[in-house]
Amino acid sequence: MKSKFTSLALLFVVIVSSAFVAPVFKVDTYKVDASKSSVTWIGKKLTGSHNGTINLQSGTLAFNGKKLTGGNFVMDMNSIKDADKSANLENHLKSEDFFGTEKFPTATFVVKKITGTDAAATVTGDLTIKGITNPISFPATLAWNADGSVTATADKVIVDRTKYDIKFRSKSIFPEIGNKMINDEFELSVKLVAKK
User: Fold this and answer.
1) CB within 8 A of 165, min separation 6: which ones?
2) Is 9 part of a structural domain of the chain?
3) Inside any domain, residue 11
4) Whole-model pTM?
């Protein structure tokens, strides 16, 4: 009788313990196709604006089923282009005044948290530019494509360049700059197309 009671007690302990073990989720990694993905930028100043592109070097998106759980992407800062094809502007953007691409050839973003739905998500993560990392959040959408790939889009990623030691003609740092000032914030639009 004692043996039967001990066995029942052990069984109860096993059942209760297993109920509190956290489930293990399977993570599926999708690789970003750089040829189908894009990053565009726009920078504004008092007298106008400039815009262009930056090539993606690599990236991944992590999913539990169809729920986005993480990811990252790497931008090739030496590939920065001006839409007006100004070689002078492109070289200046690569210089120490801006992105210092000789020393810092890439910029990266790593996802830390995702909230909301596929149609209206908020992505929070760490953006690293010129070796300096700061947290950033932005709205994004996720769409599953017929071929099994997924498209993640963030149309408005606002970046304060002064947080990354990019101070050239910043009115907040050089208030006497007058009408030669360049806005502290620039904007990125990111589209990642990824497939398992």
Assistant:
1) 130, 132
2) no
3) no
4) 0.85
Q: Is residue 135 part of a domain?
A: yes
Tell me which residue of 22, 121, 112, 138 sits closest to 67, measured CA to CA: 121
Residue 125 lies in a domain: yes
- Residue span of the structural domain in which 85 resides: 24-195
**What backbone torsions phi and psi does residue 95 show, to the nearest 5 degrees?**
-75, 175
Per-residue pLDDT of the chain (196 residues; tens, 9 = 90+): 555 545 544 445 445 455 555 555 678 999 999 999 999 999 999 889 999 999 999 999 999 999 999 999 999 999 999 999 999 999 999 999 999 999 999 999 999 999 999 999 999 999 999 999 999 999 999 999 999 999 999 999 999 999 999 999 998 898 888 888 999 999 999 999 999 9
Provide the number of structural domains found in the chain: 1
CATH number of the structural domain spanning residue 122: 2.40.128.110
